[in-house]
Amino acid sequence: MTILIDRTRERAPTTGPVSVAERQREKARPKGLYKARTPIYPKLVHGPWRWLKWALLIVMLAIYYITPWIRWDRPGALPDQAVLVDFAGGRFYFFMIQLWPQEVYFITGLLVMAALALFLVTALFGRLWCGYACPQTVWTDLYIHIERLFEGDRNARMRLDAAPLSFDKLWRKVGKHLVWIGIAFGTGGAWIFYFHDAPDLIRTFWVGTAPMTAYVSCAILTFTTYVFAGHMREQVCTYMCPWPRIQGAMLDDQSFQVTYRYDRGEPRGPHKKTETWTGRGDCVDCSQCVVACPMGIDIRKGAQLECINCGLCIDACDEIMDRVERPRGLIAYDTDAAVAARCEGRKPQHRLIRPRTLYYAGALLLVSGLMIQGFRTRETIGVHALRDRNPAYVQLQDGAVRNGYTLKLANHGFETAAVRIRYVGVPGAVLTDPGHPGSGPLVVDLAPNVVTSLRLFVTVPAAAADARAGEAGEDDDDAGQDASFQIISGDDIKVVRTAFDYGSHDR
Amino acid sequence: MSDRERDDHTGIETTGHEWDGIKELDNPLPRWWLWIFYGCIAFAVGYWILMPAWPGLHGYTPGVLKQSARADVVKELKALQIQRGQGEAMLASASLQQIEADPAMQAHALAIGQSVFGDNCASCHGAGGGGAKGYPNLRDDVWLWGGSLEEIEHTLRVGVRSGHADTRMSQMPAFGRDGLLQGAQIADLTEYVVSLSGRPADPAAVARATPLFADNCAACHMPTGVGSREFGAPNLTDREWLNASDRASITSQIQNGRNGVMPTWESRFSPGVIKALAVYIHVNAGGGEPSVAKVETPAP
Ligand code: SF4
Ligand code: SF4
Which residue, A38, A306, B30, B81, is the most exposed by fewest CB within 10 angstroms? Predict the structure, then answer.
């Protein structure tokens, strides 16, 4: 159960300054048909969480930009790109793995695993994904940083926005937008490399001979990156993303979230160096946590839909705590239950192992187990046997009965595979293959990465067919007999079940 | 609307709706949402102008771009024909054996053959080529005019009793209708034909019909009854029957001498398509004769 503490009402009459964000929000209250975006000017903070965000920003961007350029040697005409989504060829290449369209369930499985991992992390630590790894957060963070380089930190930016147009304002604004657009273009440009051979595409892209889809995708991603990360920012998270709404179902009062330790902070108010700390809370109402927040919220009002758990308010507040010489951690990753416990004077207990975390972890383990098993037993050669239905059987002039089959052999590997094909289960049956004349065992070379289609015929000589007809009797309309193809490659024997149809064998 | 209720927690007006004690706040839409909405309206107006949109009494407004799905289809069909022409030209320049032996060309030929067969041949020979009474089964190993790739192609080109200058021509006389043989003789011949395929028949009738067969039938069906490809005469000693194997059907055939007809396809299809069709029929008939058997090894 989540304990809802309505901290706004219990708040002491505000003596300190009303936060800028709040004032602006008040100004933007409903007057017209629409609501303008309230500008947010996040202030740069310093501290371990900010440091972690820098590190992850670099790692995430590096993964995104470098991955398409990793080469992976594959034989023949197969692409030498380690990660490639080849829509035209209907293949997905991922290092030593090659997926065919009928194997997209592996990708589905990966997505299910990602979702379960997200649930688990959210149940344990709230919206960590949103705060540190979500592309929207990463690119917005990068864009805000660019903004700071051109326009300075919070106060300078606010002043600049309020100032009349001047040359100084103009070049800062234009420069910022140009760099933004450059990054957006780099983002859209890197995306398309995942779908084509990167070195080839980067050349054809500039000479104008790349596929239309490449230009269109690049344009769309450039546009969305520029708009989402540059202009809409937290609005994407608050209005467009479904996750903030869903996460409520993952969280409970034991989930670690960025929490204002109400028990310790209240009653809040300005504090002079000479005053005592007894009888009051640690919060000096400096609003640093509010101005640092990229979502423009006041964490002291408790857990909110908008909060992405990025921890920047923690760093901001810790700086203040250091300055006023109080212990750090007035805002920290903590649980509602712990806050409630301390309010009641109990010792807080953290329970990471709870029914819901166990469910999520169990489901995650189950799905990963299935995936591993699926990959281990994944067939390198996929076979389908299609039996001719029209006609299902043919009687030859000497009384022999012949059935036709189409064998589809998909070589999922990267090398040509020689397979031997046998037909078993029907006594006396003879396998013939009009495409590969010659006698002896039927051996076929399967080219890698394609489906080889074989027309095969199985003939049961007259004597055997007659004997079968005698056995089957007259009222037996199911004249089929179980049979199977054996596809032998090395030590591996793959059995594909089918049937042999004797039909209304004519004596 | 000044009397609208305000939510005291947020200070925002409510819509007046309430569900289970939960009131809906009348929050304004975000501006970007509104812009997208206006953008959609602008797009719709542009679309009306550019594309066919308004129905009228005499058709619809064509739009500035004069877009027409019908014209697109015609254009695409033309392009497709050109593209197919290349494939057909490739088949036309290869030999039948080459087409069948090369997996890529074979696949191409089978694809063309299947669609052409379905449209043109299936009405008589059945969708799968299994034939019917009076219409040869193209899946088995019985060939009136020969089952090699070349013979199949030849039959496709000239047809049977088709009016083509070189048409294949077999002629089974109507022995009864034209008064060439008497009813009793036809009855005896029927027994003889039954005996040829190894089935029990009246020995006396067979003995009586022996000279009759030699005089009237052996020229085409050969003295032993094995038939002849030269005349398109069916083999009477096997188990496969073009019409039917029962006595009444055999008698009827001797009496009336029915002959089938197959059109010539030379005037209708390009040589490439005819080759594709020949390969399609040959492959589906098990590769024709003699088929070289793959020795089936027993399971280990
Ligand atoms: S309240 Fe704190 S953790 Fe939440 S989004 Fe704002 S800065 Fe990040
Ligand atoms: S930064 Fe810390 S001290 Fe300052 S207002 Fe926020 S919670 Fe209070």
Answer: B81
Bridge partners (DSSP) listed for residue A454: A407
Q: Which residues of A touch B289 (CB under 8 A)?
A: none
B97: closest CA among B294, B291, B278?
B278
| Rounded Cα–Cα distance for residues A459 and A453 (Å) | 20
Q: Are strands A257-260 and A331-334 parallel, antiparallel or unpaired?
A: antiparallel
Contact call for residues A433 and A442 (beta carbons, < 8 A): yes
CB-based contact (8 Å) between A394 and chain B? Answer: yes
| Residue B25 DSSP symbol | E
pLDDT digits (tens, 9 = 90+) for A160-212: 988 888 899 999 999 999 999 999 999 988 999 999 989 989 899 999 888 89
- What's the Cα-to-Cα distance from A128 to each of A61, A64, A247, A306, A331, rounded to whole Å? 18, 19, 11, 13, 16
Q: Tell me which residues have their CB closer than 6 angstroms to ligand 2.
A: A 260, 265, 283-289, 300, 316-317, 320, 330-331
Nearest CA in chain B to A31: B28
What's the one-letter identity of residue A48? P
Q: How much is the ipTM here?
A: 0.71
Name which of A340, A330, A333, A312 is nearest A258 in CA terms.
A333
Provide the 3-class DSSP secondary structure of residue A52. Answer: helix
Chains A, B: CB contacts within 8 A come to: 136
Ligand 1: does its nearest atom lie under 6 Å from the Cβ of A45?
no
B236 touches B197 (CB < 8 A): yes
